[in-house]
Specification:
With 184 residues, the protein is mainly β. Helices cover 0% and strands 35% of the residues.
């Protein structure tokens, strides 16, 4: 089997490592998953989801459905949530992870393309087909609004674009979006 067909761990789980020297062979691996609930097997759409195995180097647990940024100089480690509307996003933390998220130094799946749920910011709504960008937050690791999404003004679509909502959502709900963060 190829690397694309045989992941070391499924969606909804992490590699389960605590040291940055563990799991180095899998960090940066690209995997395509079908849009299927990994617990129930229910098919959500006929689209594919592209994910990258990345290491959490933020110093805190990263929560599912939140948008994160690359660690400076790296395309295999993330260092926290997005905190600026016009900042470039790395991807969305695996939506199927437990509510406790992914521990610091552990390896997890980061969605960079395809359908995934994204958490909307407090007091915000999104209509289906709305463009989404990151919500500006006070800090990238400890702010309650960091890593959440909002609908986009045209001025933010170049750098801060995350994807398009394919379901409607209201205050602090999760909205199903087609993420498109694959950049050359």
């Amino acid at each position: 089997m190829s690397l694309l067909n045989d992941p070391p761990f499924p969606l909804g789980q992490t590699l389960g490592v605590e040291s940055t020297s563990d799991g180095t062979g899998w960090v940066g691996a690209l995997k395509e998953f079908p849009d299927v609930d990994p617990v129930t097997g229910k098919v959500r759409s006929n689209r594919r989801k592209v994910c990258i195995a990345v290491r959490n180097r933020s110093g805190v647990a990263l929560l599912p459905k939140r948008v994160v940024t690359w660690k400076s100089g790296s395309f295999s480690e993330v260092d926290g949530y997005t905190a600026a509307t016009d900042g470039a996003s790395a991807g969305v933390v695996d939506e199927w992870l437990p509510a406790t998220g992914v521990a610091n130094n552990d390896v997890f799946w980061l969605t960079v393309q395809g359908p995934t749920e994204v958490k909307l910011g407090p007091g915000l709504q999104a209509a289906a087909d709305a463009a989404l960008v990151a919500l500006t937050a006070a800090a990238s690791t400890h702010s309650t609004t960091a890593g959440q999404a909002q609908t986009a003004a045209a001025t933010f679509l170049q750098n801060g674009y995350i994807g398009r909502a394919i379901s409607a959502g209201t205050t602090a709900q999760n909205v199903l979006a087609v993420v498109n963060l694959v950049r050359s």
